[in-house]
From TrEMBL, chains A, B:
High-level lineage: Eukaryota, Fungi, Dikarya, Basidiomycota, Agaricomycotina
Residue numbers of N6-(pyridoxal phosphate)lysine PTMs: 200
Entry protein name: alanine--glyoxylate transaminase
Organism expressing this protein natively: Tulasnella calospora MUT 4182
Its EC number(s): 2.6.1.44
Gene3D superfamilies named in the record: Aspartate Aminotransferase, domain 1, Type I PLP-dependent aspartate aminotransferase-like (Major domain)
GO terms for biological process, alphabetical: glycine biosynthetic process, by transamination of glyoxylate
Amino acid sequence: MSTPPFKQEPHKLLLIPGPIEVSDEVLFANAHPSMSHVSPDFIPVFGDCIRMLREVLFTADGQPILVAGSGTLGWDQVASNLIEAGEDALVLNSGYFGDSFAACLETYGARVTELKAEVGAAPSPADVETALKSKPFKLITITHVDTSTGVLSDAKGICDIVRRVSPDTLVILDGVCSVASEEIRFDEWGIDVVLTATQKGLGTPPGLSVLCVSQKALKVFETRRSPPSSYYASWKRWLPIMKAYESGNAQYFATPPVNLIYAFNASLKAITKAAPSLEDRFKMHKEASQRLKRALEDLGLRQVPLDPAFAANGMTAVYYPDGLVASDVLPKLNKDEIVVAGGLHKDIKDRYFRIGHMGLSVVDPSRGDLDRVIQSLQHIFG
Amino acid sequence: MSTPPFKQEPHKLLLIPGPIEVSDEVLFANAHPSMSHVSPDFIPVFGDCIRMLREVLFTADGQPILVAGSGTLGWDQVASNLIEAGEDALVLNSGYFGDSFAACLETYGARVTELKAEVGAAPSPADVETALKSKPFKLITITHVDTSTGVLSDAKGICDIVRRVSPDTLVILDGVCSVASEEIRFDEWGIDVVLTATQKGLGTPPGLSVLCVSQKALKVFETRRSPPSSYYASWKRWLPIMKAYESGNAQYFATPPVNLIYAFNASLKAITKAAPSLEDRFKMHKEASQRLKRALEDLGLRQVPLDPAFAANGMTAVYYPDGLVASDVLPKLNKDEIVVAGGLHKDIKDRYFRIGHMGLSVVDPSRGDLDRVIQSLQHIFG
């Protein structure tokens, strides 16, 4: 795509853990003239999103599913398609999003066992192994990065444990805050579902629930005894649609968010076809993260994740220094035209804040986004 | 909003029954820079959408609910929040969308009675009355305009029957293809839920499920014996969010489609604050519809709706003349840079096509959209 004759309006620098700063190209695509959702012009745009998502997740035959909705809808898709009433699910809880995924699974009839870590940690490998051995779980859920704590879970390590001690258990990775900012090897690690959304590492406005489902999980789905327990989230409805768009045809179940698909396509193109490569993208996120985290440490600020090895590379959750509260800090950043996020985890809500560093702000250092926020933080806390 | 420095790209004229042609202002709003979903700048944009939607539906205290998703998600919201397992629902079927709404209700445990009309008709008032007297229905659903047939149901007349013979039955109006192109008097007619989407009469790209719920329906919801049977569609989750945004605060359940909310706001402003008035808007849709339908009649084309009094004002479904099929007609329109829609109703799929005439193409005659399609049709069939 050539550079469009479009420049987005001046605005405050958005450094929250999603939505993130979005490129002019992506916003221009979101302003595409209205198109029929079954038009021959639109079909390959949708089909290419499916194909490029596979590249981002390093999968040969994972089945992408793109449905209008928030990231949360991904939980409903997992729960209503893969769980039948009374089946067991193991939820690894590293913050707010574990609690909510558990509530969603229960809504659709799962018996949920939660492994809750203390705030700032993820459940230990030993606890995961013990739990997996205690009964046959239909699925296990991992919050790859819990946006409420900035804790990064060891997705690969957990996949290894599952394969070793409970190979029938499906591995569900909540990658809302990790896809395209943390390395994910769908096939190699043996993941069965990645669920995510467009407004974080994928660099697109919010409004699309994005999933990738393994052939193994599809077989489990296809041999369900009861019908899926949701209508809108039912893969029975969506799989034929995804297959149709990918093969160059259109089929109708519900009108897709046409403009957002154009925008997603533009962002996926930048991620998969332009520099940096995916490997370099992950590396740049790691480097940017370490730079910001070091700067905060130098200022004496303590991070929420207890183990630096398991802190997200796309966001930083950090406590206010003793004696300071949100209103001492966030308005000052705001005065510097920088938007960060307050706390979300109920146990520590008022004691910390969150900085997002994903996508453009990281892979295009010429923007100077990271410099700006570090300077502003140094000015406030230095 | 002043005229933005933005002009959408040249494109084929989109005259399908949704998505429809969208204004430059709305597309420019859809390209708004990324914003935090809890930012003080964004909160009133969301709050105003809620307030303006009430104006469009002529309701004082209906509760709007705006959730990322396709229009279809509105069915899940109705079924999972208002139906408990084993309760009876009466579905008035005037085409494809009645079948699907019934399937959705059954997914969430409803016992569905369908009143099926012949293709081109809606169930008769006498049949509706008889059915309502046969057992106590928790709710009745009406497809206001069935997009597959272009049949307009007599929503007001059915509301009157319900109030007279079964006043506890909730009236659910599927207004996906009618809101802002057909008159709807939420309070006066006694409607309990209107469900719709943004990409038709509301003149915005697709991706938002839009509902308005009566206080009576909310009471029924609040006194459910079982929890809502969906997580993502649960009003228990969404009602506090809607109330927060309307009162000038933000609360988090799932990230709203921020850019689309800006776009929806821009379109609602045009609908509620600028000329034509809502009454004139309905009148213009009626006049445009009659003009197109007369032109088709003059060309000897027969419409799908059997009774002209119950044909939609925002779309026209019309049979090909004897001996002609889609490939004789649609490519010719396409050559004139006009996109219309093929058939959708399974019984007559290959025998008819559909023309949308909602929103901009109708309320701004200076665009000449209607002239263009009529001329093209006269050229093809004349």
